[in-house]
Amino acid sequence: MIPLSYALLGLLARAPQSGYDLLQLMEEPMGFFWSARRSQIYPELARLEAAGLARHTVVPQRDRPAKKLYEPTEAGLAALREWVETPQAPAPDRDIFLVQVYSLWLVAPARALALTRACKRRHAARLERYEAIRQRQREEDGDPSALRLDSPRFASWATLQRGLEYERGYLAWLRWLADAIAAQMAP
Amino acid sequence: MIPLSYALLGLLARAPQSGYDLLQLMEEPMGFFWSARRSQIYPELARLEAAGLARHTVVPQRDRPAKKLYEPTEAGLAALREWVETPQAPAPDRDIFLVQVYSLWLVAPARALALTRACKRRHAARLERYEAIRQRQREEDGDPSALRLDSPRFASWATLQRGLEYERGYLAWLRWLADAIAAQMAP
DNA sequence: TAAGTCATGTAAAAAGTTACATGATTCT
DNA sequence: AGAATCATGTAACTTTTTACATGACTTA
Lengths: 187, 187
Known about the structure:
Two copies of one chain form a homodimer. By secondary structure, the first copy, chain A, is mostly helical. Chain A has helices at residues 3-12, 19-27, 38-50, 74-84, 96-102, 109-141, 152-183; strands spanning 54-59, 67-72. The first copy, chain A, has two domains: 3-85, Arc Repressor Mutant, subunit A (Orthogonal Bundle); 96-185. Chain A has a two-stranded antiparallel ribbon with strand order 1-2. In chain A, α2 crosses α3 (38-50). The longest helix of chain A has 33 residues, at 109-141. The radius of gyration of chain A is 21 Å and the shape is elongated. The model of chain A has no long low-confidence stretch (mean pLDDT 96).
């Protein structure tokens, strides 16, 4: 089992889903911290089923094509619980913008500034997306600090909170970087 | 060319290095934002050379085995510059701890707290490592805000700064999470 | 002489991405 | 009739990891 297995089980543990549903849930919200494409998700579902961690039932629909609804088995839930409470080796850190910044001394300041601003736009957009989700969540759940620890809502709120702080921190650093570059251009 | 190609070129652009040197530089400091193993680095160096972006000379040493010293070619430097000033599609976000947190509602609060603390230790250790590097950098370079934009030192400082802020932000969130869990355990 | 570091690679397997492929149903 | 959404997959390729493999030289 790979992290993706548990990402999928984590989604199924909240509610049964079709592969197609999972495709979208892996975009948002799971994609904010773990991602996978269609070509990885469908085979992984088959693997989970072969391993006895998930099962599916075919659900015919009037207005749409039939779908396979997946849910975790008891063994699947147990495996997920066990994995969740075991500290995991972190995935290697990968930030392509920092790879660029590491060689930023090679390029003209104006280019460096433009690059920084492009990155800033990305992160600002991501932050806005997170804030929209928080807004929606607040409308649905009310005061998030009142959520029970054993509710999926609490878990969603905790991950969202990290996303918000991550983007704010990144943006603060980007502003600092842009200022440092600009400061050496003006005089 | 993949991001790793430019990570390696970025190291070579600062000073010629052997594959073995690059192995260690890919651990630290490059590993803080991009990583690769030996089995990827040596073939990648060969690829860079085949593409005319790097070249090597064999350097015999008295006290140690001979080594291949790599440096970027003019074409390699040009390719690096061009890549650096072009906005890159970000690598997918991957945070295994957040995958766990997303399903944290399934496990006992005491386990959740233990997991959070294990994560906190990791990040605290990483922060200490960054702070030690900052200390060393400060001793070598003096006031970092005086560094010139076109010096590798500036670039190193900028990436380190991001690392420091990332770990501080992560730790702040972990404290918040631990508190939220603890608050529901006590009463 | 054994352990440790310096030094360079390859092989095989796994994980992940891009592109291909198909078909039902609904809406315009 | 064509575009859009729902729905499920596979094939080929690239990237990355894990494990294997070897040898020079130094120090205890």
